[in-house]
Amino acid sequence: MAHVANHPMTQEEELIEKLGYDDHFHEHHEGDRYQSNFINTYVFSMDHKIIAKQFLITGMFWALIGAGMSLIFRLQLGFPEESMAWLKPLLGKWIIINAETGMGTLSQDFYYALVTMHGTILVFFVLTAGLSGTFSNLLIPLQLGARDMTSPFLNMLSYWFFFMSGLIMFFSLFVSTGPFSGGWTAYPPLSALPQASAGSGAGMTLWLLSLVFFVVSVLLGGINYITTVLNLRTKGMTMWRMPLTIWAFFVTAIIGLLSFPVLVSGFLLLMFDRGMGTSFYLSEIFVGGQALDHVGGSPVLYQHLFWFLGHPEVYIIILPAMGLVSEVLAVHARKPIFGYKAMVFSILAIAFLSFIVWAHHMFMSGVNPFISNFFVVFTLIIAVPSAVKVFNWISTIYASNFRFTAASMFAIGFVSMFISGGLTGIFLGNSAIDIQQHDTYFVVAHFHIVMGVAAFFGMFAGIYNWFPKMYGRFMNETLGKIHFWGTMIGAYAIFWPMHYIGMAGVPRRYYRFDTFASFSHFDDLNKFITIAAIATFAFQVLFVVNFFYSIWKGKKMTNPNPWGATTLEWTTNIKPVHGNWTGKIPTVHRWAYDYGKDGKEFISQITPLAEGEVSSDH
Amino acid sequence: MANTDTALEHHVHEHDHQGDAWSGAQSPFKVSYGKIMMWYFLLSDAFTFAGFLITYGALRFSSPTWPVPDFVFATDPFGISNFFGKAPLIFVTFMSFLLIISSVTMVRAVQEGHRENKNGVLIWMILTIFGGLGFLSCQAWEWTNLISKENMSLTRNTFGTHTADGYYLDHDGKKSAETFREGESYLIHRHAAGGHGAEHGEAGHGAAHEYKAGDHAGYMMDEKGFVHRKYVYAEGPLKGKTQTEQFGPAAFGALFFFITGFHGFHVFSGVLFLLIIALNVASGVYVARKNGYEMVEKIGLYWHFVDLVWVFVFLVFYLL
Amino acid sequence: MRITSKDVLHNFYLPHFRVKMDAIPGIPTYFVFEPQKTNEEFRQQLRNYPEYQVPSDPKDPSSKPKWEAFDYELACAELCGNSHFAMRKTVRIVEMEEYEMWAAQQKSYYLSNIRFKDEDPNKEKLFSSEIETRKEEFIELLDTALITAKKTVQFSYVTFATGSEKLTGVSRYELDNLVEAMKEKKGLRIQLAGHTDDIGEDALNLALSQKRADAVMKYLVSKGVDASRLSAKGFGESQPVAANDSDDNRAQNRRTEFRVVGQ
Questions:
Q1: How many other CB atoms sit within 10 Å of the CB of residue A548?
Q2: Edge-to-edge, what's the strand order for the sheet holding C10-14?
Q3: Cα distance from B193 to chain A (closest Cα, Å)?
Q4: A254 within 8 A of A202, measured Cβ to Cβ
Q5: What's the predicted TM-score (pTM) here?
Q6: Closest by Cβ to A223, choosing from B32, B40, B59
Q7: CA–CA separation, B91 vs B81, rounded Å?
Q8: Is residue A51 part of a domain?
Q9: Could you list the mean pLDDT of each consecutive 10-residue stretch along chain C, which spans 263 residues?
Q10: Using CB atoms, which residue from A286, A435, A515 is nearest to C20?
Q11: ipTM score of the complex?
Q12: What does CATH list as the number for B35-153+265-319?
């Protein structure tokens, strides 16, 4: 340490000679001063691999809570007549026991709180932080040949802001008026007036606070991912040699960086409306017959600000999954990814288009139908790059010697889900059809399949595929395949019937359907969905068990490159050290998809071009 | 010619060995990661401000009237404007000038940084800090004036605007000599606060008269002590009808305090960071790090950004 | 269909017609749609299906069959608080003729909900159509009174400010009707009578009723009716027309009337 400070230049040159190029090696190779004890090795770690695991496990925790909530409200929807008294020990006062019959019913307030929290947790905590946070952190430095992120410190902060955000949200579950209950989109006036509903008080305040922390986390992470991809690619790693995973994470980070700040603007204005009496979103409102002072605001304005994030957000969720799937499919098909450049350009096109389609969430919000036309057109254009990707995935696995593993099966499952959900998206993107489908179960089915389940499939593919990299052991393949089939069939069993219910016009976010003759005749389907949901959840528990069992007891990895992949992360030790490569960082000589080339099964990116070999680079 | 050849040769030489800028093992823009991070942070912050300015636009254009900035921001301390012959925006012009000048001094600080001139960096940074502090003080005065003298708040806008030509009534409800034009703004005074009307060019209004609460022929005093004067429109659909001054759109006050406050918060944090970095410069940390005062460059980027945002804020609140 | 909201966002949703639109506080929205089948037509159509032949209430076998109980429904499709799921209203689609008949009988929102309330800016005056109807009403009352034994007409619209003899603005219209009638029927001589309810002291009530009768007389005289044809008397609470046991009855007892004493 000391002599470094005294002779920085010579030391630097020496290290470059020994270890290869590194933008800030001095932060990593000084005898691991960041990993001197348990706390800064595993808790306040600055190692991207540990931070990735922290994101993953926190995400899994939230996924279980979020999915558990969905089971409770599915029970209410599937079996409204059954007593829920047995949930009393868990939910306390939110289960109302009828003194005479002993029948326990779920409180309406809490039903809406559950729906809201389910959405918030899954969208933000699980599929944004849990998915992109995990794999961007794990794979960006490893696949680019970097020692770590550009700023490991900001990277650590990013996780801990996420942790704080989660903690605040967790606290909000326990306030006496309940967590926020106005839907994950938090439309004012319901969210702006603390007196509007039980959850709009303290629950909403904590919700807002939590999400502001969350955005800070996303921005810190995103800035890191972008700069790492730009600055820390190893020698020879041109942009066109990067695996598609990195392209996806890179573009995701850029989308996040541009859309989340607008959400913060919206939230800050909302906070002022709540706390300072301003009227940015409020106008002509009566509470208990009394007119409030608020005039001149517009609730639709919030919807614009929200969906300017909200729509890119679904691509923030799905793009990393697409990247993981592209990689997993190519590795297990033992073929180069079909149309690499087309894949990259579709990612870029999707990213660009995602910013100019937000109002398709607002066709029924009283916006001018003429303006809707533009958003319809752009929305439908997104189908083009999406279809390019789908065809390329199919072409990649077409006529290949496909290796069916849990990871690759989930990747195929992703493609299936993405097609099914994407097709219904074409319905919904049309403002005329949306008049009927808006806010019905058709929408619920659509987005759960296309960005919920599909993103989960991408995440599972990623976990099964890179688990050996993370823990040096394999997850149990048999359990993994059972998990796949259970989830695949289960997810379709849950969401397929919802399309029918939705087409029949049943609105989402209803506590009970028996108040309407039009909506009350789907009891059997609702029961079926609930049972399917419980079964699917059971398979996820199996996954969690498999995951934690395998961390300590899984089959040990003996081959450092078990899948025969070309990318750099498999060139490290079985358990990569802090700084990733013990010696010099590798130099890259070819793109990431040299599978089956010149009679070889695969050629690692670090292998120099053979005599007379034609580069397959783009 | 010889020079050009050498440069070309040098370039080719580099290409052979390292490939192009994007080939890895170097920053494609020859920029350190820290500066890229700052650029991306500023990009995202620009989106935050864009969100606010769009909100401003949406609310302003859905309001039937909007106060005239020349009237609202006509005030200044120490009677400065008297030297300029009633220039309405003179004070805010001075404020903006301070901020822009502080950007110039920041450029000088960065330049001295490139020259590795520690004292130069320090001097110019201190000047920049003074610029920032000056701007903040001006803003503090402007806010104080608006809040305590003109009774603006987040929820109340004391500046209303006439929608047609007409004339005012005097205290007894008779036609007075005071007339107004369509689109002119007025300020509703709080009687308890004493006459402040003179500064807004409302001669003949204020001090002498003893206002009483309630609805009177020439004015209406509400329960909070605001005196709403009565006037008559000389044209338009309301011609000949007696009207009472109403508060202007509340969104004006809310947006003004919110957006200039958010910008002021940026300036304030900027000053704090400048201060910290100036201390680091003085202690010679950057000399030891041998990174060419990169920190000064980064805060410089931030400072120029804040300055640029002010140009937009200035545009929408004071000029349009 | 014009839509607005007074509290939070709602969504005006007609599931059978596949239409919906948000209801936004401060921003009215609208949509236009043309229903094709009336409730009755649709019920007849549903009648053909066996699943609509069952009783509408499964617990009560004698309830109307499902097809007959059918109604078009109106639901909310935007999360609006905890009873979001229960915001049900029904919609009746009828033939154009039936609608027009119904519409002809409806008063406007202004007339039925705002008129003569405190927030009505025109509560001190009548519109010409109202003046017409009230005039006809008054003439009929007077003509009826002239052929009955009591010969008494009770003013329907003459009211005073509470506790005083100051006539309210709208009272003058009915009194103007009387003035007109007096000018037409030259021989008509009347006694104006004031009555109160039993609240307050007897003496005070008596004095007040006298003052009110005088105020009416003063108004008539000011309109050119010869004072010799008029007299005014206050009866206080001595002649109730209903028992003073409820607010409604007391309101009936607070009245001003006149008796025809010669024609």
A1: 13
A2: C19-23, C10-14, C72-76, C89-91
A3: 23
A4: no
A5: 0.83
A6: B40
A7: 8
A8: no
A9: 78 88 86 86 90 83 85 88 84 85 80 73 76 84 81 82 79 84 83 84 84 86 85 83 81 84 78
A10: A435
A11: 0.86
A12: 1.20.120.80
